[in-house]
Amino acid sequence: MPRQVEESHLFTVLFNFWRCEILTRLPLGSLVALFAEAPVVKVTRKADYDGLETLVCQVHGFYPKEIEANWVKDGEVWQEGTLRGLVAPNSDGTYYLLLSVQIDPEEREHFRCRVEHDSLKKPLDVHPYTRCFFLRVCVFPEGL
């Protein structure tokens, strides 16, 4: 084996050993912080045939898997008419979750999808008219 290839291979082996050694010495909380991916949250709505409306909260692209997501009405967790799917994996190693709630359309402005995750400094409340993108910048229409 030529010397240049040997040195390159040795460098790769030592670098990978060093990287693994550092990662194994970090506390678990630090590892989560290193690899955490913040969720992307989107709330959509659709009219139902019975005059009610269904709000759907799509939470995706987050890591680690543990997440808390709930519908909140006027600041309180709302269970009535709520359906929650299981946290499921994406092909890229992140996760996604869907939850929905059936509501009276006249009460729409009172509902938020609240998401709590290790990657977020504080809970994220998303209104049906809010759009959150990229670095979790949320844009609210005027008046909200």
What's this entry about, in short?
It contains two helices and eleven strands. With 144 residues, the protein is of the alpha+beta class.
Could you walk me through the main structural features you see in this protein, from its secondary elements to its overall organization?
By secondary structure, this protein is α+β, with helices and mostly antiparallel strands. It has two domains: 3-34; 36-139, Immunoglobulins (Immunoglobulin-like, Sandwich). 22% of the residues lie in helices and 39% in strands. The protein contains two helices and eleven strands, in the order H-H-E-E-E-E-E-E-E-E-E-E-E. Strands 1, 2, 5, 6 and 7 form a five-stranded antiparallel sheet that branches. Strands 4-3-8-9 form a four-stranded antiparallel sheet, with no helix packed on it. It has a two-stranded antiparallel ribbon with strand order 10-11. Strand 10 and strand 11 (137-139) form a beta hairpin. It is globular and about 45 Å long. The N and C termini lie far apart (68 Å).
